[in-house]
Amino acid sequence: xxxxxxVLALIIAVGSATFAQDKPQPAPPQEKASxxxxxVPEAPRPIVPLRVQIVLSRFKADKKIASFPYTLSLTSxxxxxxxxxIDVPITSAPMPGHSYRSVGTNIDCIPGPAPGDAYKLNITxxxxxxHFDTKTTDSSKTTDxxxxxxxxxxxxxxxxxxxxxxxxxxxxAVDPISGEVLKIDVTLNVIK
Length: 192
Known about the structure:
mainly beta, 4-stranded antiparallel sheet, 2 helices, about 10% helix, elongated
């Protein structure tokens, strides 16, 4: 029996080792595949000085009656704003005194990239003015209705793609009170 115990111990030891070898071993951890691609940093856009001229023209039939040019200096990555106006006093009958209302021109211009050597200009133009009824030219026939101002307002937002030296006309609108036609022309120049 003494020989059986060591042999039995040997069989148990060999069987355990064989069983351990047959047992599937866990695979070594693999690196996860990257689901995101490496981003190539964008080349910085060059800063280009620009001059944008916006012309508001008023026509009566085919005759130009007014032209208001506004020149904005900006860069290809910065926006610019122009605010030009006046506060008009408004009397309110039967109460004594008056209040004020702002009229004038507001322009916002935001440049952006466009294909090639062009620039995209996002422009908002708001133009307001005071209108008095001037149909009666005889001063003795002036009525209270002719002394009450009417306020005209025009507002438009648009985008134009222009190259250096190029012009474009964006809009043409008819004033319902006076019948005047308002046109907006935009010219872009790269300052060298």
